[in-house]
Amino acid sequence: MTVTVETLEKLERKITLTLPADVIQNEVTRRLKDVARKVKMDGFRPGKVPLNVVAQQYGYSVHYEVMNDKVGEAFSMAANEAKLRVAGQPKITEKEGAPEGQIAFDAVFEVYPEVKLGDLSTAEIEKASTEVSDAAIDRTLDILRKQRRTFAQRAQDQAAVDGDRVTIDFAGKIDGEAFEGGKAEAFQFIVGDGQMLKEFEDAVRGMKSGESKTFPLAFPADYHGKDVAGKTADFLVTVNKIEAAHLPEVDGALAKSLGIAEGTVEGLRADIKKNLEREVKFRLQARNKQAAMDALAAKAELDLPKSVVQAELERLVEGARADLKQRGVKDADKAPIPDDLFRPQAERRVRLGLVVAELVREKALQAKPEQIKAHIEELSASYEKPADVVRWYTGDNRRMAEVEAIVIENNVTEYVLAQAKVTEKSIDFDELMGQS
Question: Which of 41, 227, 370, 404 lies at a 20 to 30 A Cα distance from 186?
């Protein structure tokens, strides 16, 4: 076999492979003989089918397999010999004009780029920090109390207010015609919780049990029901029952119901604070990791392999289709999803992956066993039976690989933050948690 390597552009290379034709033919013959020994054909005893008969039926597919295998082997050997790091799959085509007794092929492919990491000491990164305040603990307590609220029916003459649970019948029409999803009986919702559109809540608020009302409701243009989005409906609503909410007191009984063994409010608040601090830590890590990764990628210089970007793009599109399917979208696998929608994300992922891999290799930032163990224990700490969660992780190679990847990203983040110009910024708890 003879090999030549040619640079086409940037990361694109071409290898010309030349193989003796008899190597291909000898392997085809050998495999056809194997087939002849095993194949069953009418009119012939097992193992006695003539080779020319076997070749007529199986010759093309066997020849195709041999060509794929031999050319693939030749390409791998040639790439290794030339010390090329191949990115993606090569495009292999047979070449015309090969010398007699030879078969020639062109393999066009990309190689992974050289990554120049850049000077991280000039990178400017804003590192966020957050304190868990008493107000945040109070709001969490309110949420826990709401989850355990009870309801008692109001008197007939009492109007519905925020926090009440109402049971209603309603029927909506657009241009005098009923529409799908526009009618319900004995429907319940909490006034002021945002479950219904604001105009609907505003109409029901202040009504009394037994009252009926007709009101217009304008559906937003981006409403999830496409048939009614941007249209105005007339609704008739009747209130059947109004129930006032009762929130449990913040006392020892509530603490015990929430798993606080000593049954004290102080213990409950301490437990809430501990859980919030754990969540804050993970969210800060994610936010600061994003900032560090952005800085790392911005400082690096490299060309992106088109084939790797395309493969990542296809993964993202398939993920989008799977999400649509899970949401119940009909024919989600055929939904038109333009590549450009995900191309920036695909390019960023590939770029970041190559840069991170180079930094990990150059600075020995691989995940250590003790780091992986500590991370799993931290993830498991918030569960009722941490040991079971630890076993859940350690018992599955895929989950362990995911944890290892996170630890490596954390190592990279710490390294980048240690090298860069970092500005500390305190952000509000609600901003971090994505609350209004």
Answer: 227
Q: How far apart are CA 105 and CA 86, in angstroms?
A: 17
For residues 267 and 397, membership in a common domain is answered with yes
Residue 422, SS3 per DSSP: strand
Q: Is residue 382 part of a domain?
A: yes
- Looking at the structure, tell me whether residues 53 and 92 fall in a common domain: yes
Collapsing DSSP to helix, strand or coil, 353 comes out as helix
Helix ranges restricted to H, 300-396: 306-326, 343-363, 369-380, 386-394
Total structural domains within the chain? 3
Residue 195 belongs to some domain of the structure: yes
**pLDDT tens series, the chain, 436 aa:** 556 788 888 899 999 888 888 888 888 888 888 888 888 887 787 777 788 887 888 888 888 888 888 888 888 988 888 888 999 889 988 888 777 888 888 899 999 999 999 999 999 999 999 999 999 999 999 999 999 999 999 999 999 999 999 999 999 999 999 998 899 999 999 999 999 999 999 999 999 999 999 999 999 998 887 788 899 999 999 999 999 999 999 999 999 999 898 889 999 999 999 999 989 998 999 999 999 999 999 999 999 999 999 999 999 988 888 888 887 777 777 778 888 889 999 999 999 999 999 999 999 999 999 999 999 998 898 888 999 999 999 999 999 999 999 999 999 999 999 999 999 999 999 889 885 4
For 323, the domain range is 260-433
Residue 138, domain member (yes or no)? no
Q: Does residue 383 form part of some domain?
A: yes
**Among candidate residues 221, 246, 271, the one where a domain is terminated:** 246
Asked whether residue 307 falls in the same domain as residue 403, the answer is yes
CA distance 388 to 394: 10
Picking from 114, 119, 113, 84, the residue whose alpha carbon sits closest to that of residue 5 is 84
